[in-house]
Amino acid sequence: MVYHSTFVKDEGITKACGCPLLPLKSHIRGPAPVSDQATTDIIDEAITFFRANVFFKNFDIQSPADKLLIYLTFYINVALKRLEGCRTLAEGTKAIINLGLEDVPVPGEPGFPFPGLFLLPGSKQEAELLRNYLKQIREETSGRLLSVAYRPNGTPNKWWLAFAKRKFINTIAL
Asked: Which superkingdom heads the taxonomic lineage of this protein's source (predicted)?
């Protein structure tokens, strides 16, 4: 059974293209509201559920937060593929920084991994709001992923990097 997000209530949550802009425990500037450091955010859920959810070929969406969970699971898969050949934390950090510098496509643009997952932007402002949110959430996810993909001594954690070979929902990571 697929693990779903616990962020099912979306009252008072701003949305862009049908994607909820959920609060993050982040020091990175962006449009996401700041969450309390003691609470679990969507990135914590995505990293926690990744190794179980990556095995599923179907994902039943039960809330708008599940759409964001799908996007983050795919992004973690892409990031692990980039980390696969990196033998040290320094190499991994460099690979993740390069991934973070890539353009972030929004729905309707070439390169967006799941057409139809989110609505098409109604305006340029909505597209930029979603692009900035996805960029912020990708950067924060990358930083947290490094702390689980590498051990404290800087060597790769094979129990995480082995999942780079998996395809999530039959989608090949870029």
From this structure: Eukaryota
